[in-house]
Amino acid sequence: MIKNHFRTAWRSLLKNRIFTSLNIIGLSVAFAVAILLSMAGFFDLSYDKFHTNSKDIYKVYSMWQNPKGSQVSVSHSAPLMSTIMDEVPGIKKATRHLQQEAVLTYGEKEINMDAIWVDADFFTMFTFPAIKGKMEDPLEKQSDIVITEETAKMLFGDEEAIGKTVQILIDGKDQPFTVGTVVENNPSQSTLEFEVAVRFEKESHYSENKDEWGARYHDIYVQLAKDVAPSQFDVATRSLVNDNFKERIDNAKRDGAQPDADGLFYKFELLPFLDENFTTFRNGYVEVSRSNTYLVLGVAFLILFIACVNFVNMSIARSGERLKEIGMRKTLGAKRKQLFFQFWTESLLVFFFSISIGLLISMLLIDDFKTIFRTDVSFGLILSPVIILLFLLSVLMITLIVGGYPALLLSKLGTIQSLKGKLDVSGKNRVRDALMVLQFGIAILMITGTLVLRSQLDFMRNKDLGFNKEQVLSFPLDGKKNSYDALELMRNELAGNPDILEISGADNNLGYGKDGSVSSSMFGFEYKNRVINTNYLTVDYDYVETLDLELVAGRNFSREFESDRSGAVINEAMAKEFGEKDPLTAYISFSDSLRFPVIGVVKDYHFENLDKTIAPITMMMSRDYDLYYAYVKVAPANLAKSYEAIKNAWTRVSPNSKFLGSFLDENIDRTFRKEKRMTTMITSGAILAIALSCIGLFAISLLIVNQRTKEIGVRKVIGASVSNITFLLTKDFLKLVGISFLIASPIAWWFMKEWLKNYPFKIDLSPLFFVTAGLLAGIIALCTVGSRTIRAAKQNPIKSLRTE
Amino acid sequence: MLLQLNNIFKWVNSGGQRIFLLKDINLNVEEGEFISIMGPSGSGKSTLLNVIGMLDGFEEGEYHFLDESVHSLKEKHRANLYKEYIGFVFQSYHLLDDLTVKENLEMPLLYKKFKGSERKAMVADMLDRFNIVGKKDLFPAQLSGGQQQLVGIARALISNPKLILADEPTGNLNSKQGEEIMELFKQLNEEGVTIIQVTHSEKNAEYGSRIINLLDGRMI
């Protein structure tokens, strides 16, 4: 019997080649995309789960109130961790964590590495399995370091790494360390990344800061004992806060800050480590949101849904053609169950082919997928028994529901009804229409999303950021040389080059450079009996000129005035913060005697990402702090030549370090990675959605035209023209698209409004987006249906009327 | 002279063989005639009717309709010609199932772009003439076969055609209904409409003023 089912199913599929291939094409593309997208989604969700203790680990963050509202920070001062360990119950382990590059020297090699400075417990809290050397507690000795396999290879090649001594540049001096342990490379699902791990106590600022509560510069992770609730942490740290942050709290009260809901001005909270990858700190609150990941999974689901709707719709619509067959089989004695299984076998075959092809496509496309969507996902990372089981289960569910529903409908038809070939289409049309409305709604939603996302991205890319991003190039000043000396050498090297216009340096980059590092530093000071907080930037001479910042008052640091070295240049936001009529009378005070007067004010410029408003910033020329980035302004012509010239100059100045220079517009572009990824995804989702919907529409229009041939013939005979008929046939489809538009637009509007809330600088959500999306969907639908209907309308009516 | 067929041949090629559907048909139809075409199944009656109605083409011969040379006309002009001068009546009525009687009658006028008021007047007139005013809001499925055919004829007549082509108009009706329809045709003919009908029934053929017999596509 089963063999018979398969044979008849196979023949029936072959007989209806057009529909079978439309179905298989649609479904396999949808399956491929769904597999890829859900892999990416599950990959994201599996971040950091590989740590055995991941559920018990938390990141400490502080929340405090100032007159402008609440503020959040994960940066802490060095003494905090030991105080927490001493005073807070239920903390099993804790580690400080500071990520900062370090220059490692071994023999001739001098490599700039991604280093983390942590406490000994780091490797017992987190799971980075040791493969060589000291297995237990690898950072027990302060003179030991832990490196990854890759680092070992980079430093020592094939030589044995364990026991080797390397020099690390700390505070301008090389210090010897012994490689104690080699661990596996960081898994790609890890938020914590490092090439080398060094004890926190060795970090250059540690000795001056170890008892200093005011300097907050590192993270803290704690591991709670079993059965300790993270919510107790706030209460347990209150006395600690009162002991150590009294001055801050008093200042906040004096400046008019409002206490939070618990009546507190300063408190510590715990952020689950597993949430860290999904966390943003915005407007003084911690936001944990996996919505981006869910969006990926959602798109996967919607695409699959559209393809499944196609399958259901085509199966139902074709039931009319199969009525005679059903009636015949019934009179021959087929039971409902048998008929159901016969039709279901057909569905199963289609799904079997589609899933196989889909899997194949996804395997072929995975590499491109990884580059386009910037994910490290691979089949190896995802293939756990649970996932495979889940996959099989969902496939089974889909075939059962999607394949079973039409089979059930077909097998339910009465014998006489089916033999007569009479089908009550009106009721089923409603299901079909509803499904098609849903399909096109999804397509319109995604098209609108595409349009809005693209315009916002365009808007941000083209926004005037307040500095010259086309002509300025920045590169990290890494290497062993003092950064000021290095910069001076660069100035000399490039002095004769007419294409090089200005050279300067600062301790922070604009946008994301090729080194990918970002940082921000802030400080607060007392000004006329209140606290002012500002971002802080160490700069060299000519910073304003190099970046073409616009001075609105005063002047930039000048070599002619020695006193400028202890002056400050601020932006307008900072000037507003001072609240002085003439901002040039204001000053930055470090103590009553140490005051840095404001010598210039620049127009506000976007020194942070565009999803942030422009905050106050203060530039100073402190030679105590290193510069980390050099900025070079070049002539607009010969950009590539200038780039080469700078690169060569840098190689001469610092022969051992790699040149990682890039123009600022590239850097800014890199800050839109998240948006770009989302735009690419929504765009491809939209294209697929509309393409799949149109496959469905095409099939349905084929069938409807067939069903209505008689009517078309009659109408033509009584005088209808080709355009009359075409309009008649397309009208119904366009109505469906219209309804989809009416339903999808408000939803799209809501989503887009929510999304745009993330950006202080954004486009207006004009109705044009929605109308365009609707029109686009309408036109595409029209084209899909059009060719078929025009052909039907042109057909000679006697063909369809020759039924007698 | 309403129409004239000269040496009409129509064939299809099937399996390398030429199968003749119409062979050397010569026919003159004067205005006001009532012609019955008879013949066994497959003799080409309906084909001839379709050719006359310009729904179907032919391979050889000349066809003049009201001084127009149909054989040299383009498809579009031919369509305009039959839409203006010819009304069709079918064996299975071919009413539009989703439209009421009134709407069915109105459809040809809509396609010919008559004004709303004119349409209303013409439909009302036709309903009146065929005595189906009471049925104007019913759907075809709610009518008997005879009533449906009545509506079919009314629809064919509504735009005042010169010629009515009827392909076995009584084929699906019982004898009483059939008789009524034939009486109606006779009456219409007396009012001046030219009618060509295809029929199997000798009795119905008698209503006509002339009978054409076909056998294997040939007039006998």
Explained architecture:
The complex is a heterodimer of chains A (804) and B (220). Chain A is α+β, with helices and mostly antiparallel strands and 804 residues long. In chain A, 50% of the residues lie in helices and 19% in strands. In chain A, strands 17, 18, 19, 20, 21, 22 and 23 form a 7-stranded mixed beta sheet that branches. Chain A has a 6-stranded mixed barrel with strand order 4-5-10-7-9-8. A 4-stranded antiparallel beta sheet of chain A has the order 16-24-15-25. Chain A starts with a helix and ends with a helix. Chain B is α/β, with parallel strands linked by helices and 220 residues long. Chain B has a domain at 3-94 and 160-219: Rossmann fold (3-Layer(aba) Sandwich), CATH 3.40.50.300. Chain B contains 7 helices and 10 strands. In chain B, helix 6 links the parallel strand 7 and strand 8. In chain B, helix 3 runs parallel beside helix 5 (145-157) and helix 5 packs parallel to helix 6 (175-190). The model of chain B has no long low-confidence stretch (mean pLDDT 89).
